[in-house]
Amino acid sequence: MTSERPWPLRAGGIAYGGDYNPEQWPVDVQLEDVELMKEAGVGLVSVGIFSWAQLEPREGDFDFRWLDAVLDRLHAAGIGVALATATASPPPWLTRAHPEILPERADGTVLHQGSRQSYAVSSPVFRDYAVRMTRRMAERYGDHPALAVWHVDNELGCHVPHDYSDAAAEAFRRWLRNRHTTIEALNSAWGTAFWSQRYDSFEEILPPRSAPTFVNPTQQLDFARFSSDEQLAHYRALRDVLREVTPHVPTTTNFMMTTANKWVDYFSWSGDMDVVANDHYLVARDPEAHIGLAFSADLSRGVAGGAPWMLMEHSTSAVNWQPRNSAKGAGEMVRNSLAHVARGADAVMFFQWRQSTAGAEKYHSAMLPHAGRDSDVWRTTVELGGHLRSLAPVRGSRVTADTALVFDYPSWWASEMEGHPTQDLGYLDEVMRWYRALWRRGVTVDVVSPGSDLTGYRALVVPTLYTVGDEDAARVAEAARAGASVLITFFSGIVDEHDHVRPGGYPGAFRDLLGVRSEEFRPLQEGESLTLDDGTRADLWSEKTRLEGATAVRTWADGPLAGLPAVTRNDAGRGHAWYVATRPDDDGVAALVDAFLAEADVAPAVAGLPGGVEAVRRHGDDGTSFLFLINHTAHDVDVRVTGHELLRGQDVATRLTVPALEVAVLREH
After folding, report:
1. FRET partner for 8 with CA separation of 20 to 30 A, picked from 446, 520, 581, 638?
2. Do 504 and 627 have their domain in common?
3. How far apart are the C-alpha atoms of 198 and 177, rounded to whole Å?
4. Could you tell me how far CA 554 lies from the centroid of its own chain?
5. Which residues constitute the domain of residue 95?
């Protein structure tokens, strides 16, 4: 359930720091920055992310002197650098000279200079300039002693996940030739016999630009795949230059796995990363945002194949880009940071080091806020640095889990397209409905792709795996036959990788595994709900299902399907396969998860903890385990444990008190 990926950073413990933008500040402030970084325990900073216009103010006129001084100063202070390629935002002279590099929306709107990421990732002109800039950075700084890791571009695809420009159209056609080989194969895959869409050559194909009504769904799905792959191709082009010039320096880029970017299939990028890095920001309107954080961290670990990963960005307090930007509460910055560490992060970094006084992100919090050192945020910045020094023994240890949740980006894309039985289905909402129930039961979860080896798990949750190929469907079935309890939810297995419905009845690819057959979907209208035989209320979805080997766990108590199965269970080899053909309310999900976990013999990391207290273990190669206890409640909690508590430096013989809104980390062996 893990893969080997060496940890490339030179930090002796948990790396600590954030984005550092010295170009925004005079030299006297930069000198103060270094002294304050040492006070806070900062050991790693990201530099140069948006500095292209400062490094090359005019085409071919480079000025590296200021960056030379910054890196020399940081090295003298013992601070390592994640040095960016400086390509995340082209300078105004470039977009003025080459307006053809600007990206376009589906309706033809050109996205102009004045923000960031104002480039079409498929543009060969932009690619040439970006590669050239990357080479200059590598040749100048490849042997600098401060350099710890290359930071390629920044949050690729965050603002422009899809580009519909002419450059993108040409790149899309190349991608389609590679994927489908012949135009006949493409016509078959896209079902172009429908609506007279048959193509006679690849040259006739465009991106799915704005059209009179629904655009071909397989065209949309392939364009989503292409767009993810094209961002990866850009990463590879820059990465390859770095590996050529500086083969001794690892490379990464910062993902945004759930916060802002659903359109990059990060599982497909994993093998190209020397270390996986992720940015995560809380959703202020979510009162349980810490559960979303846990999911993002578990997903980051899944993309990393179980190896340690970097938290490249999060916030000390409020962000600036949500409708209402809430400041973090007491202890929340520390809890957030250590929750990431608990789930596998070996680096904790923030956007940004010093809070800006100008620009679009001046109200985004930072490690050193506008209020300066006499502030709770700064005091917490220093406190967190001390905590991470205490956690140095944790570095390199791994999280292990008996339970996995299958997460699939193409199913996210495809399940939310138009022309479906309901437009109210949100893929991430369905995923989180089941993840939250597992989190509340203290169960450690690996979030994995359907292409992973699933046979080592006792429990496997598969929510809304709408599009699935034969091989991935077989992996899910094999997990059940090997002894796992597998729970699959509605609108799963419906279509193949081309978004073609699997005929013969739903749930398509999983029909035999589940021992059921549904002949018709019956989505519920807004505000409508039905009752199951145990009193559970269910909304959004129902389907006309009959048993073909399975047994009914829940049946419909009312409505047009009364008496028919709503939740089923089937024997499958040494395991079992459950099917949930509706969306139960929270109590109904909780009851099903309890029964499912009991059958799978899955236990929480620590039994008997009150709600709101998180417990996760990391395990070292030497048999040492580290128990993270994160108290999100307003009450002190006593936990029966033994070992040595690292944050407070105290031995624990039988019982440990975790104060309200605080964290404890116990070395158990």
Report:
1. 446
2. no
3. 16
4. 34
5. 15-162+231-394
> Concatenated DSSP letters for 564-584?
SEEEEEEEETTEEEEEE-SEE
Who's near 663: CB < 8 A, 6+ residues apart? Answer: 331, 334, 335, 338, 387, 628, 629, 630, 631, 647
CA distance 309 to 104: 34
Q: What does each C-alpha distance from 507 to 388, 544, 545 come to in angstroms?
A: 47, 11, 10
Strands (E), 14-110: 15-20, 44-47, 80-84
Over residues 552-567, mean pLDDT: 97
For residue 290, the model assigns a pLDDT of: 97
Name the token pair of 414. 């495809």
Phi, psi of 565 (to 5 degrees): -70, 140
| Contact by Cβ (8 Å): 242, 274 | no
Question: Comparing C-alpha atoms, which of 93, 92, 117, 231 is closest to residue 168?
Answer: 231
On whether the CB atoms of residues 645 and 656 are closer than 8 A, the answer is yes
User: Residue 653 is part of a domain; what is its CATH number?
Assistant: 2.60.40.1180
| pTM exceeds 0.85 for this model | yes
Question: Each residue of 486-498: pLDDT tens digit?
Answer: 999 999 999 999 9
Same domain, 378 and 499: no
Residue 321 included in any domain: yes
- Say if 628 falls within a structural domain: yes
Last residue of a domain, one of 394, 412, 445: 394
Tokens 């202070």 locate to: 77
Which of 567, 600, 633 is a domain's end point? Answer: 600
Domain count within the chain: 3
The 10s digit of each residue's pLDDT in 625-655 is 999 999 999 999 999 999 999 999 999 999 9
**What are the pLDDT digits (tens) for 89-113?**
999 999 999 999 999 999 999 999 9
The token pair at 573 is: 């080899």
Interstrand relation of 15-20 and 345-350 (parallel, antiparallel or unpaired): parallel
What residues are labeled active site?
155, 313
Tell me: do 475 and 586 sit in the same domain.
yes
How far apart (Å, rounded) are the C-alpha atoms in residues 285 and 666?
32
- DSSP annotation of 194 reads G
**Which of 106, 117, 126, 127 is CA-nearest to residue 156?**
117
Strand pairing partners for 309? 345
> 434: domain CATH number?
3.40.50.880
- Give the burial class of 6: count Cβ atoms within 10 A of its Cβ; 0-12 exposed, 13-18 middle, 19 or more buried: exposed
Q: Is residue 585 one of the residues assigned to a domain?
A: yes
Residue 336, SS3 per DSSP: helix
The contacts of residue 379 (CB under 8 Å, 6+ apart) are: none
Angle CA 602–606–610, to nearest 5: 110
Residue 193 has pLDDT above 60, yes or no: yes
Question: In angstroms, rounded to a whole number, what is the distance separating the alpha carbons of residues 402 and 454?
Answer: 10
Closest CA to 435 of 274, 316, 631, 297: 297
Token pair for 235 = 């990463």
Give CA angle at 388 (383, 394), nearest 5°: 155
pLDDT digits (tens, 9 = 90+) for 591-631: 999 999 999 999 999 999 999 999 999 999 999 999 999 99
**Alpha carbon 227 to chain centroid distance?**
17
